[in-house]
Specification:
Blueprint (H helix, E strand, L loop, with lengths): L13 H6 L9 H25 L1 H22 L10 H15 L2
Helix pairs in contact: 2-3, 3-4
């Protein structure tokens, strides 16, 4: 059985997709338990925003993600992947996201 597509890359499968999501890459149980409800909540808010709640639900999803990123950056000290070099920038992001959540 050939597991490569015509370009020589591995074929797409749901299992390979899930294995590349943060929380599932290391195959550690506690990370999976923590990540699964977060992904379900994000999917729920996104679906409600697309089909029911309008633009405000999508803004709430962006704020929710920004708060999570800011809190993680505050704990770690920096998140270069998200262009957050230090805790001061993380704190500003957190304050801005929380201020946006009230509008």
């Amino acid at each position: 059985m050939n597991n490569r597509n015509r370009f020589g890359r591995p074929k797409f499968t749901f299992k390979s997709f899930v294995r590349n999501l943060p929380g599932f890459r290391s195959n550690t149980l506690w990370k999976k338990v923590l990540a699964a409800p977060i992904y379900l909540l994000i999917a729920l808010v996104l679906l409600l925003g697309l089909f029911g709640g309008g633009i405000s639900s999508i803004v709430n999803l962006v704020v929710f993600i920004a708060v999570i990123i800011a809190v993680v950056a505050l704990f770690k000290g920096s998140l270069p992947h998200f262009k957050i070099p230090n805790r001061k920038v993380a704190a500003v992001l957190l304050v801005a996201a929380l201020a946006l959540s009230f509008f």
